[in-house]
Amino acid sequence: MIDGQTLGGKQMQKNQFIALLYGWIVVFGIILISSFVLALILNFTSFERPGLEWATLIIGLVALFSGGITAGIKGKAKGWMIGGTIGLGFSLIIFLVQYLGYQQGFSLEQSLYHLAYLAVALLGGIIGVNVAGEPSE
């Protein structure tokens, strides 16, 4: 027997999944565009490696924060869970590429970066839900 609560739960799960898709699209869109811009800067200027490391860290933090906010706004509920999933999904994809492609795990420094990525994605999801207002019933 299907009642209104079950249908509402399935609708909420669908909304959460769509919110995650929007968040990941924002994250990877920002990273893709930023990678292109950084490649142009590296090619046509004398920008050096130490500056590149800080630039990529900041771009990653901004991308995950933006993706968390976008997912939180679209999801309208459970912002910490949506943001956490955005951050964990990003870290998992990066880990898989690095491990399967380069046969290297995360270093301690990279692990700390990914904890920061997770934290800003969580924060973005929480802020996004609160910006969105009340969930639609």
Overall description:
With 137 residues, the protein is mainly α. It has four helices and no strands. The N terminus is likely disordered.
Q: Could you give the topology of this structure?
A:
Layout (H helix, E strand, L loop, with lengths): L3 H41 L4 H27 L3 H24 L5 H25 L5
Helix pairs in contact: 1-2, 1-3, 2-3, 2-4, 3-4
Entry summary:
With about 140 residues, the protein is mostly helical. The chain has one domain (about 15-130). Helix content is about 85%, strand content about 0%.
Question: Count the helices. How many?
Answer: 4
The termini sit apart by 21 Å
Summed up, the domain count is: 1
Helical content band = over 70%
Q: Which structural class do the helices and strands define?
A: mainly alpha
Cα gyration radius (Å) = 17 Å
Low-confidence stretches: 1-5
| Mean pLDDT metric | 88
Strand runs, count? 0
Report the sheet-strand fraction: under 5%
Q: What characteristic shape results from the CA principal axes?
A: globular
Characterize the biggest β-sheet.
none
Q: SSE order, as H and E?
A: HHHH
Sum up the structure in keywords.
4 helices, 137 residues, single chain, globular, 85% helix, mainly alpha, disordered N terminus
